[in-house]
Every structure is written in C-alpha cells, then in structure tokens.
Amino acid sequence: MKIISYNVNGIRAAITKGFIEWLQQANPDVICLQEIKATQEQVPVDDITAAGYPYQYYYPATKKGYSGVAILSKIKPNNVVYGTGIQHMDFEGRNLRADFDDCSVMSLYLPSGTNIQRLDHKFMFMDDFQNYINELKITIPNLIICGDYNICHEAIDIHDPVRNKTVSGFLPQERAWLDAFMKSGFIDSFRHFNKDPHHYSWWSYRAGARGNNKGWRIDYNLVSDSLQHKLKRAVILPDAMHSDHCPILVEIE
C-alpha cells in the first residue's frame, strides 16, 4: 500500500495548479489531505473519481474556508470515522480515519500556535489527542497517522534551529510532546530510512525560502511499531508545487 500525506493549503487552489494531474502520476493507493479549506460540494469529486479515486471522504471545519481534512482512496475502506468525539477538536475538522483490512490510515491536521491563545489550544489538543490515540490503539493497533503536525521534531528537521528555538513549531515543549508521542509506539517513517539533514516539507512563502531550501519538516507519516516489518520505503516529494507544503510518502508491504 502506497500512502501519501499532503497539506494542500486549499484543495481548490491546488487543483488549479495541477493537483489532479499530479495525483494520477503519483498514483498512491490512499492520499490523506490536510487544510482542504472546502466542503465536499465545493470539490470536483467527479474529476477526482475519474483520476482513479472513487472513495472520497471529506471532513471540513465548521468555519468556511478553514482547516479541514480528507482521504481519497482507490480501495474501499471497511469503515470511516469522522473526528475524535472531542468537541474542541472536531469542529475544526482535524481528524479523519479510514480502516482497511490490515491497517487504519488517519489524516491529521494538528493546530499551529500562531498566538498565545492558539498555543494554549494547541497544547490542549496535543494532550487530548495523545489520550485518544492511547485508547484507540487498544482496538486498532496497526495505525498510520499521516499529517501536518505543525512541529519539527529535532534540530535536523529545521533549517535554522538556533533562531527558531522560541518560535511555535520548534518550542521545547512541542518537540518534547512529539518525541513522547513517537516513543508511545510510533515510527517516524521518513527518519527510519533517511538520517540526512536538509529534508523539509514546508517553506514560508517569504524571502525565497523554498528556492533556498530554508524549510521545516512538520509533516509526518507515523507508523505503529507493529508495522515496522512491513515498511518498504518513505520519501519526501519536494517537486510537487501545489502548496507551501510538499507531499510525503510511505509504502507498506
């Protein structure tokens, strides 16, 4: 199973930049999208079906043009779960899960901490999400959590760790949470195969950041420890240019 995660920063805008054509070429079995900023009615579902993805699930935020996640699949899931059941998480459309025979795939969009209020909300979300996953793993051990975590794990994952140490996304408390989350039973699939620096998944639109590769690695395909023996490869796809993020791929046997 080939799985891609991609924060498209607006699916309608991404489509105008060739997203559907790219999707056909990339040809994942499942793609998890974040920050779709649209309802299903605003998306050309027939065009996506024609591209090979008849199974489409959209979970938009209550607020129009904001947040939202989706899963597009070639394979029909056995079950689809919208949200977590935690109200402060779900009205922003941040979590969607599709259960298949051998694993469950989740699209996650963790909040950013752009100001004090949102940072407090982010920490609350992180704590509640950890508890939610701890419970979920009891019944669904083979879990792949794909998405935009809005956190760089280690210094290798950010272009300037010194000047960004007080910026949300690289705060010590955020990094400690992500580290503990991984150690609770997940593999960072990209780092499992690649230990090299200068690999990022998001770049600011300012000051030519992408062209100069001054980025952050904040998107992850985290795979349950139970699936480690099935990991085949994991790569970042920086040549896809439909968003300020790029897609990330993991392949499971």
Task: Walk me through what this model shows.
The chain has 253 residues and is an alpha+beta fold. Helix content is 26%, strand content 26%. It contains seven helices and 14 strands. It has helices at residues 11-16, 19-26, 45-50, 87-90, 116-139, 172-183, 189-193, and strands at 2-7, 30-34, 55-59, 69-73, 79-82, 95-99, 104-109, 143-148, 186-188, 202-203, 215-216, 219-224, 231-236, 248-252. The strands form three sheets. A six-stranded mixed sheet has the order 3-4-2-1-14-13. The chain has a six-stranded mixed sheet with strand order 5-6-7-8-12-9. A two-stranded antiparallel ribbon has the order 10-11. Strand 7, helix 5 and strand 8 (143-148) form a beta-alpha-beta unit. The longest helix is centred in the middle third of the chain and has 24 residues, at 116-139. The relative contact order is 0.16. The mean pLDDT is 97.
Short description:
This protein is α+β, with helices and mostly antiparallel strands and 253 residues long. Helices cover 26% and strands 26% of the residues. The strands form three sheets. A six-stranded mixed beta sheet has the order 3-4-2-1-14-13.
Keywords:
globular, 7 helices, 253 residues, six-stranded mixed β-sheet, 14 strands, alpha+beta
**Spatial arrangement of strands, main beta sheet:** 3-4-2-1-14-13
Alpha-carbon distance between the two ends: 6 Å
Q: Radius of gyration, Cα only, in angstroms?
A: 17 Å
Structural class call reads: alpha+beta
Q: Give the DSSP E fraction (strand runs of 2 or more residues).
A: 25-35%
